[in-house]
Design a protein that fits this description.
The complex is a heterodimer of chains A (88) and B (164). Chain A is mostly helical. Chain A contains four helices and no strands. The N and C termini of chain A lie far apart (41 Å). The model of chain A has no long low-confidence stretch (mean pLDDT 91). Chain B has one domain. Chain B is mostly helical and 164 residues long. Chain B is globular, with a radius of gyration of 15 Å. Helix content of chain B is 78%, strand content 0%.
Chain lengths: 88, 164
């Protein structure tokens, strides 16, 4: 149980660190936030990282390097979401 | 035993209803239509005597996966694979939101809050009751009576400062 929580924590922290390095803003600049399409470190970066980690863990098993990969992909998806899904 | 099942189903339905209506209203679904389809539905509902803001709420639910879809999908995934299913739902709902030109705050928040609620309540009410309960909850808004449902949603929106 602790093992699984640790894996999620690793993916969460990795995603936040990578997002910071990629200069993703902490909060969207456009107000009101509820209509802003800009991605930020608060939303959706951690949610994406945890979701990807859940998928990878269930598919391939409990590996620490998968948690790092999940965090990395979460941050990249968050950073380049506007390119993937188009500008709104 | 069967009466107990029905009581659990109704309680789960009420929890789901409150969860998705409050989150969707908070994130501004009644304020403006996200896409043209939602605007059309809102105006049609106003034509039959309903509330425009409630109509926008209902239109936005139809046109993108908001907290209603998040709640239903997270209940199903919690039933299938526990808390981790809720996390996967949040990711997939966000992707679905982005494909539907929606920022995705309401859908992911709804999925995560119902995951937390199911986790806390699972010794008493199992995830399967939330799946059935959410179907009843969404039927009460989108299927039963559009006019009065939109008026109720409009009133809730006004109370929460999200509509006129």
């Amino acid at each position: 149980m602790i093992n699984i929580v640790l894996l999620y924590l690793i993916s969460l922290i990795t995603s936040i660190v990578v997002a910071l390095l990629l200069k993703v803003p902490i909060l969207p600049k456009k107000k009101p936030i509820r209509f802003s399409f800009e991605t930020s470190i608060i939303f959706p970066t951690p949610i994406l990282a945890l979701g990807i980690e859940a998928i990878l863990r269930n598919l391939f098993g409990n590996y620490i390097y998968l948690a790092f990969i999940a965090g990395l992909f979460g941050a990249l998806l968050s950073k380049y979401a506007h390119k993937l899904f188009g500008e709104v | 035993m069967e009466i107990l099942d029905i009581i659990k189903l109704i309680i789960a339905g009420i929890i789901c209803w409150i969860n998705f209506v409050l989150i969707d209203t908070y994130f501004g679904l009644p304020e403006k239509p996200g896409v043209l389809g939602a605007k059309t539905i809102g105006e049609k509902i106003k034509e039959i005597g309903g509330n425009l803001n409630g109509g926008y709420f209902m239109g936005n639910i139809v046109c993108s996966p908001d907290a209603s879809a998040g709640t239903l999908l997270a209940s199903i995934m919690n039933y299938l694979m526990g808390v981790e299913g809720g996390l996967i739902t949040a990711l997939l709902v966000w992707i679905g939101n982005r494909l539907c030109a929606d920022p995705g705050y309401a859908g992911t928040t709804g999925a995560l809050t119902i995951t937390l609620i199911i986790y806390l309540l699972h010794p008493i009410i199992e995830a399967k009751y939330f799946v059935g309960g959410m179907i009843l909850a969404i039927f009460s808004i989108q299927g039963f009576e559009h006019k009065y449902a939109s008026i109720l949603l409009g009133k809730i929106a006004k109370k929460m400062n999200r509509g006129e």
